[in-house]
Structure formats: structure tokens, C-alpha cells
Amino acid sequence: MKFLVTGHAGFIGSHVAIQLLERGDEVVGLDNLNPYYDVRLKQARLDRLTSYAGFTHCQLDLEDNEGVAELFRAHKPDKAIHLAAQAGVRYSLENPRSYIDSNVIGFLNILEGCRHNGVKHLVYASSSSVYGANENAPFSVHHNVDHPLSLYAASKKSNEMMAHTYSHLFRIPVTGLRFFTVYGPWGRPDMALFLFTKAILEGRPIDVFNRGEMQRDFTFVDDIVDGVIACADNVAQVNEDWSGAAPDPGTSGVAPYKVYNIGNSQPVQLMKYIEVLEQCLGKTAEKNMLPMQPGDVPATWADVSDLKNDVGYQPSTTVETGVARFVEWYRDFYKL
Ligand SMILES: NC(=O)c1ccc[n+]([C@@H]2O[C@H](COP(=O)([O-])OP(=O)(O)OC[C@H]3O[C@@H](n4cnc5c(N)ncnc54)[C@H](O)[C@@H]3O)[C@@H](O)[C@H]2O)c1
Question: Ligand 1 centre and the CA of 127: distance in Å?
């Protein structure tokens, strides 16, 4: 099977690409290696992929419609896993345009590529942030998600709607995955675990938002990768029991369309997460207790029952194990 994996120099994309290559699939990667965070880390992730014979690297902007169309024509992937995006809630207040360019225009180019090249299944990254102001926990794909709190969340919600439209009009099977705070080796420098680890090792205080009154459904990257690949293998179908009179948001009766939560389904208090990190590092953090950040939400918690039922998803990594794995990688990578 030939997969297009976008965002292969990114955190989740690099792990997904390796797993596909390891099982013998071909991977064509699209990434622009942009400088949103340290490009050396992206390059190091990419270097891990280039040793596989089945891997092809294409450095390209998602918003380059001609370039993306040409990539699809030239490589004719069987399936696509679209993970490239401008990520991050907080940065979407500073640089809103990059979210529209990469996440909305870029997503249209991916949909067009799938439409014109007979792609058999598109799996794409959505986000837990689409739940926005919804406080009905655990978050379910059958809940309404019409109240995003950041442009990042709004861009991911638009992806789900654009995917439904293309899936309906052009019969492209599509699966959207709402990721819940992914962490682990090769993680992102703009996310809490990386920021905390770096600050603690450098003897600087860490910023703790909402004065620590936060809860996250932290999900280890290996569990995410298993779920992403299981979804890619399980092509989305029309829900024959769906009714337009009482439309279920997670499926469709008029398109081969699915949306899933992909989380650990065991939310952890932020202060507990920090405590686990302190134990792994053998150092206590000096904590800067700060108010809630605009655009952020106090708690996330995934209901993953659909993903369990449909593809046998079974996350198994505790935060104790996962944080230790991250710290081990961090110390090794940065020689600390
Ligand atoms: N990590 C998480 O906790 C999390 C949570 C929810 C959703 N997501 C989503 O999962 C996906 C992967 O996230 P990640 O954590 O691996 O992020 P990442 O930033 O590490 O990876 C994204 C990759 O996409 C590339 N990219 C960005 N814009 C591009 C563009 N316009 N053209 C080409 N390439 C571009 C980047 O260079 C990067 O390598 C993203 O869609 C993100 O929004 C991640």
C-alpha cells in the first residue's frame, strides 16, 4: 500500500511514517519544514525516515495548490494520512493567517488531490479543541461542537465540515481523528511537557496556567500511532442507521464519513503530571502560577468507545511510563 503522509517531519507524522515503513508500506511524505519551532528537530525526525527504501520526501507547502496537485498525480497514493497543519492554540491568537493558509486552504488542496486521484481513504487530524465551550464530559463525537474558542479549533472544525462535503459529493471515504494532548519522544517544543522539561533542567521556573486547575487527557504517542494506523486500515463507511431528522454529528447517512476521539480516556490533573515529571528528572520545579490563557479550556476527557468498538483501539501507556520515555529521549537527544 502506498500512503501519502503529510507532516512527516512533525511529531506525530514522523512516528506514523516509521510504523508504516516498518510494516512494509510505501510512504510519500509532504512537509515544508517550516520554522514554527526548531527546524533541527524536524530535520532529525526526517533523518530517521530517509534510511527506509520505501520512503520519499517532498518538501512542499500545503497551500501550493499546483504543487500538491502535481504530487498526487506523480505518486498516486492509495491512501492519505493528513497530519500537516499549523498546530497550537496559543499561537493562533498571534498569527491567525497561518491557520487559514495551512489548515483551511491546505486542507482543500488535500481534498482536491484525493478527489482527482481516486484516493481510497483519507484520515486527517482534527483536535480535542473543537469541543471548545462544551463542558459535557467525557467529550463524545455525538455531542455538538459548534462553540470553538480559538481560530485553531475553528480551523479543525472546518476541516471536519469540508471533509463531510467532499466525502458526500465525491464519495471519498474520510475519517477525522480528534487528538487529545499527545506527548512522548520526539515531542513538540511548544507543548507543556517539552517546555517544562527544558525549564526545569535549566533551573528556570515553569509557567502553570489556571494556577494548576487544569485537567488533560494526555495520550502517549505510541497509542496514538496504533489508533491512526488502525483507522487508516478500516475504511470509513456510510452509517445506514443515520437519520437526517436527528442527525448524529459523528457519522453520516449521506457520506462515507467518520469522526473519532483518540485520547487516553483517563484525564490527569496538571499538577500530577508535573509531579511525575519532577520525579523522572529528580528535580523540583519552581512554579509560576498564572491565570488561564485566552483560547484555552480547563479540562479535556475523551470518550473513545466508538474507536474501541470499530477498530479495537486500546491505549495502554500510563503517564508514569510515558513521561519517563519522554525524559529518556530528551536527555539522549540533547545530551543532558
Ligand atoms: N500533538 C498534539 O497534542 C495534537 C493535538 C491535537 C491535534 N493535533 C494535530 O495533529 C497533527 C500533527 O500534530 P503534531 O503535534 O505532530 O504537530 P507538528 O507541528 O510537530 O507537525 C506538523 C508538521 O506539519 C508541517 N507543516 C505545517 N504547516 C505546513 C504547511 N503549510 N505545508 C506543509 N507542511 C506543513 C510542519 O513543518 C510539521 O513538521 C496536526 O494537524 C495537529 O493540529 C496534534
Answer: 11
Per residue in 107-129, pLDDT (tens digit) is: 999 999 999 999 999 999 999 99
The residue behind cell 488531490 is: 113
CA distance linking residue 163 with residue 143, whole number of Å: 18
Three-state DSSP class for 61?
A: coil
Dihedral angle computed from the Cα positions of residues 275, 278, 283 and 287, in that order, rounded to the nearest 10 degrees: -60
Please name every residue paired with 54 in a beta bridge, in sequence order, or none if there are none.
none
pLDDT of residue 280: 98
Is the CB of 61 inside a 6 Å radius of any atom of ligand 1? yes
CA–CA gap between residue 317 and residue 335 (Å, rounded):
25
- Residue 201 pLDDT class (50, 70, 90 cuts): very high
At residue 105, the pLDDT reads 98
| pTM, two decimal places | 0.98
Q: How far apart are CA 21 and CA 231, in angstroms?
A: 17
Please tell me the distance from the alpha carbon of residue 196 to that of residue 205, in angstroms, as a whole number: 8
Crossing angle of helices 151-170 and 106-116, rounded to 10°: 20
Candidates 89, 95, 93, 115; CA nearest to 34 is 95
Distance CA 129, CA 148 (A): 7
What residues pair up with 121 in beta bridges, in sequence order? 79
Distance CA 307, CA 17 (A): 21
What backbone phi and psi angles, to 5 degrees, belong to 144? -75, 140
C-alpha cell at 123: 484520515
Ligand 1 centroid vs 87 CA: distance in angstroms?
A: 5
CA of 242 to the centre of ligand 1 (A): 32
Specify the pLDDT at position 40. Answer: 98
11 lines ligand 1 (CB under 6 A): yes
**Average pLDDT, integer, range 213-231:** 98
Task: Check if 87 has its Cβ closer than 6 Å to any atom of ligand 1.
Answer: yes
Q: Which residues contact 94 (CB under 8 A, 6 or more apart)?
A: none
